[in-house]
Amino acid sequence: MTGIEALTLAAGVSALAWGLLQKRGWPTGLALVAVVAAWLVAADLRLWVALALVVIALWLWRRGYPNAESATAKRLREGTRHLLLLSWALVAGQYLVYLWQLGRGETPLLARPDVVDAFLPIAGGLGLRAWGQLGVTDPHHPAATVSVLVLTLSALLLGRSFCGWACPLGVVGEWLHRLRRRWLPGEWTPPRWLDGVLRAQKWLVLGFLLFIIVLAVPTAALPGYLASAYHQAADMKMGAFFFNLTLISGLCLGWVVLLTVTFHQGFCRYLCPYGAWLGLFGMLSPMRIRRDPALCLRSQGHDCDKCSRACPSRIAVHQVIAVRNLECSDCRRCIQACPTRADALHLGTRRRRVSAPLQLALLCLFLFLLPLLAHGLLDLWVSQTPLAVRRHLLEILPALTH
After folding, report:
1. Residue 289, SS3?
2. pLDDT tens across 242-294, in order?
3. Residues 6+ apart with CB under 8 A from 7
4. CA 201, CA 269: separation in Å to the nearest integer?
5. How far apart are CA 114 and CA 247, in angstroms?
6. Parts of the chain belonging to CATH 3.30.70
7. How far does CA 25 lie from the centroid of its chain?
8. Backbone dihedral angles phi then psi of residue 353, each to the nearest 5 degrees
9. What's the predicted TM-score (pTM) here?
10. Which CATH class is domain 288-348?
């Protein structure tokens, strides 16, 4: 685990502990004890140093901003997304330097950040299949297996909270869309039929990925595939697809950028297979955005639809009691838009509201504590591919096929 990964993990576990501390009672105390116990058991020296640095930084920040505890949901969400985007940018830079030095025949000064394997859904899905069906773990991209597993588990409890609170690609997409609006003002919304056609794209992509993961590789052939040169070089093949542009990859990238700049959350709504996957499992989640019709201003005769107008996914929140929609990312924008005097919206179950700090804490539980346990207890995170093998794979990369 590299320094950037360790710092990000330490920051995430700190956010988990802080979110739990916002609620009082014995369940919270028990949860905090479990978090501390997990850290004591699974963290190594690098992670302890990273945690110390994060705690010192948070202490200095709190001294400069003594009212930080009153952070709104918007500030929490945007702060989390931008910090993770910064982490991903540093990881990308580190990975590119690693590959550049590897390609020159040098011993890389920076280690390979294994979190890049989170962008390998096929490798993660096949690794999860091999683990579940054969008890065989993937030694080359274990972080991909862990990433697919924890994101799926998070969706079962928190729906698409990862999309609304953590995904760095969503932040980049919003920046590109905002830049387009500066040069070409206006919010463009496609007609319903075109919106349906465009949304079908991500389901086609997800269906293609699931076909490869579930059907294309027989169970008996999984160990052989996981040991193949193509699988070992999957991360480098993915990078080459975007950085060594061909006509096909250039057209794909251009289409992604076009949808992203044209429509608000264009990539998330129309192309992201992870969003589609999390949306499916999110339908099983007991937590969702809920509206109390007794408190809603519409019950008092007001024609209020501020919640629906604030929703980036264009969901008619003011017309439903509980939002059951594949596009909902639990971002809380509708809750923030609801007039304070009404307080008619909340995220949670029928009987319990989930605050923004607790939502962030639960998300961090999946995104950071579970990978920590996988790394510390199961040794499932760091790739075991030897450096010499990786250098050879990089040399023959263009010739590698399925």
Report:
1. strand
2. 777 788 888 989 999 999 999 999 999 999 999 999 999 999 999 999 999 99
3. 50, 53, 54, 87
4. 9
5. 29
6. 288-348
7. 30
8. -90, 145
9. 0.91
10. alpha beta
